[in-house]
């Protein structure tokens, strides 16, 4: 099995980001570039990172009218992303059009509810009911829309996988045994997440902030 670890490259400067990828690339399976990276470095930055030869996950969380999202999806073909995210709350038509416009082989996965939101934030946006109900509702909608999977926590992935057996599940918020949790609250280890059914393990600071990032990535790889 190929390495499921995608390094979350959340560094603001391009040169240190490239240097980090080059240090750890033998021990990871891909690189996740988010909105911050894309806004700061644009297509040039994506191409620079892609030179390392690893698959690229563009975590741009598209959310707009279906036509705009489909056009954005076509515009990113040039980066040949392996994985792209959209917001499930954009609705079924938006997700269907996003998937239809994605390049062959590119996984389109849905963000259900941002983990920064709690029940009161949900209510304030007009959504009543628990966060769990909302996550499951949006996961079903993403499935029905033909997406490949969703982003979910290492704790949720087992439950979600029971309902969506061939889903592609992207799991962030992971911490190797014995490391600090930072601002992540509900953490599981990379191994637990993989055993629970994760397809991709998104890991940032446990590698990027380690004294020896290559050794940290290698140690994580060895547990999988
Ligand atoms: O540094 P760390 O391993 O916490 O990085 C996790 C990555 O996954 C970051 O890029 C973060 O934005 C992203 N993410 C997350 N939790 C979510 C969704 C995405 O940590 N629920």
Structure keywords:
binds cytidine-5'-monophosphate; alpha/beta; 224 residues; 10 helices; TIM Barrel; single chain; 8 strands
What's the short story on this structure?
The chain has helices spanning 14-24, 35-50, 66-75, 92-101, 119-124, 131-144, 157-163, 190-196, 205-208, 213-223; strands at 5-8, 30-34, 56-62, 83-87, 107-111, 149-151, 168-171, 200-203.
Helices and strands in order, then pairings?
Blueprint: E1 5-8, H1 14-24, E2 30-34, H2 35-50, E3 56-62, H3 66-75, E4 83-87, H4 92-101, E5 107-111, H5 119-124, H6 131-144, E6 149-151, H7 157-163, E7 168-171, H8 190-196, E8 200-203, H9 205-208, H10 213-223
Q: What gap, in angstroms, lies between the N and C termini?
A: 10 Å
User: Sheet with the most strands?
Assistant: 8 strands, parallel, barrel
Name the shape in a single word. Answer: globular
**Overall pLDDT confidence:** 93
Give the strand order, joined by hyphens, for the main sheet: 1-2-3-4-5-6-7-8
Assign the CATH topology.
TIM Barrel
Fold and architecture overview:
- This protein has 224 residues and is of the alpha/beta class.
- It has one domain: Aldolase class I (TIM Barrel), CATH 3.20.20.
- The protein has 10 helices and 8 strands.
- It has an 8-stranded parallel β-barrel with strand order 1-2-3-4-5-6-7-8, surrounded by 4 helices.
- β6, α7 and β7 form a beta-alpha-beta unit.
- α3 runs parallel beside α4.
- The chain is globular, with a radius of gyration of 17 Å.
- The termini are close together.
- The relative contact order is 0.15.
- The model has no long low-confidence stretch (mean pLDDT 93).
- Cytidine-5'-monophosphate binds next to β8 and α9.
């Amino acid at each position: 099995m190929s390495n499921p670890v995608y390094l979350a490259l959340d560094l603001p400067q391009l040169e240190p980001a490239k240097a980090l990828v080059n240090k750890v690339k033998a021990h990871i399976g891909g690189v996740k570039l988010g909105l911050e990276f894309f806004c700061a470095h644009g297509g040039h930055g994506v191409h620079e990172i892609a030179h390392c030869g690893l698959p690229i996950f563009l975590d741009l969380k598209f959310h707009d009218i279906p036509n705009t999202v489909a056009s954005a999806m076509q515009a990113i073909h040039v980066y040949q992303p392996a994985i792209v995210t959209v917001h499930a709350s954009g609705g079924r038509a938006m997700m269907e059009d996003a998937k239809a416009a994605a390049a062959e082989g590119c996984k389109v996965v849905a963000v259900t509810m941002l983990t920064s939101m709690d029940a009161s934030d949900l209510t304030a946006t007009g959504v009543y009911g628990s966060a769990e109900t909302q996550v499951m509702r949006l996961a079903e909608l993403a499935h029905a829309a033909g997406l490949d999977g969703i982003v979910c926590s290492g704790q949720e992935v087992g439950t979600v996988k029971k309902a969506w057996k061939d889903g592609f599940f992207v799991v962030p918020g992971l911490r190797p045994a014995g490391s600090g949790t930072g601002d992540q609250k509900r953490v599981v280890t990379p191994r637990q997440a993989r055993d629970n059914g994760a397809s991709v393990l998104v890991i940032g600071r446990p590698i990027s902030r380690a004294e020896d990032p290559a050794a940290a990535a290698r140690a994580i790889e060895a547990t999988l």
